[in-house]
Amino acid sequence: MSDTPYGYYDFGDPDEYDTPDYGGLSASETLKKYWGYDGFRPMQAEIIESVLGGHDTIGLLPTGGGKSITFQVPALMLPGITIVVTPLVSLMKDQVDNLKWRRVPAACLYMGMTRHQAEYAYERCRQGKVKLLYVAPERLERDSFIGQLARWDISLIVVDEAHCISQWGYDFRPSYLRIAALRERKPGVPVLALTASATPEVVTDIALRLEMKHHKLFTLSFTRDNISFLVRHTDRKYVKLLQILGSVGGSGIVYVRSRKRTVEIADSLVKSGISASAYHAGLDIETKAERQDSWHSGQTRIMVATTAFGMGIDKADVRLVVHYDLPSTLEEYYQEAGRAGRDGRPSVAVLLADNRDKASLARRLTEAFPSKDFIRHVYDEICRFVALPMGEGFGALFEFDPAVMCVRYHMQPRLVMSAIGFLDRAGYFNFIEELETRSRVMIRLQRDELYDVELEPRQEELMHHLLRNYPGLFADYVFVDEVRIAIALGCKPDDVYKMLVALRREHIIYYVPRTSTPYIYFTANRTESSRLTFPREIYELRQQKAKERIEAMKSFAYDDDHCRVATMLKYFGEDVPAGYACGKCDVCRSRRSAAFDAAWFEPWFFDVLEQYHQFALSDLDRVLPRFADEAAAHIRELVKQGKLKNNDGIISKC
Known about the structure:
Number of strands: 22
């Protein structure tokens, strides 16, 4: 990937992508040509066929199910632009980067871009030089933007993380409701809504909010056959964590609910001889990237993280996910636990629970629903913090760090964040958390003045590199990548950073380093807080739904009479036969220890053969010491039925 004048994500593609010709390829041919895959994963082809047929479509694919392929492939086959609405700015950048690497022209638009960046992306779309445009939902708040989209040749609208459009979704985003306005402007364009976790109620609401009349629904079972879901009740969680890490090999994630605890547990693991690192939203961008790369490459075995380490984590060989603290919802738990075993190999998801966690869940509910008077107070304090006068603010964007405000005004962070969520949902502003701004440079001097400046040899080498590889430096800010520059110059990124800072101090360049800054975007003028209203569906009804979700989480964690997977499948609306047993969760394992269960054994044994291709009967005494005889008898019966073959005690599939 070569550097481009205005940055890889936002300012278009190399010239050879300007007039793409996809040659009338079929879906499978497109998949092979641009992704190199020989076939689709389950349900991908069906969703693509529905979309290409012009049908509104809802796809429920579990975490790791390959949702992006279901819209990226048709985007290349359809004549116009595919609009992808997604709330995950970092993920949209990764996907755009990946698409361009595959020679697919893509761009993205999100709050925090400069006007010049946005205009360049707009122009490429108007010229038909973009096939996929990723859009942050906050952009949809602008009528002018909706009007702009309406003038383009749009072939498909994709709503990623579609549960965000539902009032009953666990992560409702009011700006998603504006997608309906886009549908009004483009009534003939099909909509594809995708999510990894949604209850039947949420699916119905998604269709309603997106004004789908005769949509097609495609859903994969929420079952992850290769994951063993285990709950361990213990008052000594760290001791149990060490035992688990000692018994399950490979890469893993440990999820906790506080930034402080990520550091504490990671440090303790390192002292115990386990390679581990901490990850949370408060880290700077370089540290996040460094730790994530170390974990991805296998240099770091365990990542101890908050939910900031989440969407877009694409590591197939995660063998273990441990929840040190209970999540608030089964949706959240399923998403995070589902990051294990994306390569299809046996993996483990462990939830650690003690009696104090029940009280913690109740406390979270209280913190999640502060009083309406407190929410109004937070609104006033935010306006004071950003110095917003009464009656002004519509369309204004401010850097806004809630943590700084909480310290300055002596407020409780968790309650403040909950209040911000309600103000966001009620439509008074959009809070955009941890928006990444890339490094950028502009030369302050005129070109002839630059030749008269005396620089140190390394600084001169750096300036020559910038001038050769980043055109436009004299006219405007240009995005730069310190890591790429360091590789080209044969030094460390920190050395490049220090040289750029030194050149800025000498007034030779303007240099704005990378930052990760929360923003607040006002969708309405400031008003008297006493006039703020919170509809029943935003506050009271959501509070009731939150109680139901917490009770479902408690049931999953503390009800030891039912299969864990059965509990989860019922929650997500799947039909579960009476007496269903996954055979792998801790409840099923405890039952299995009391008596041989042929209904469990047979699918388990075929899974083993799928992974290892053969199995020695002599190993039954070691693998199933209590039921070796019963298992051997069942295998012999399967051989008689022609389902297996026995070659001198070595069992394989027919």
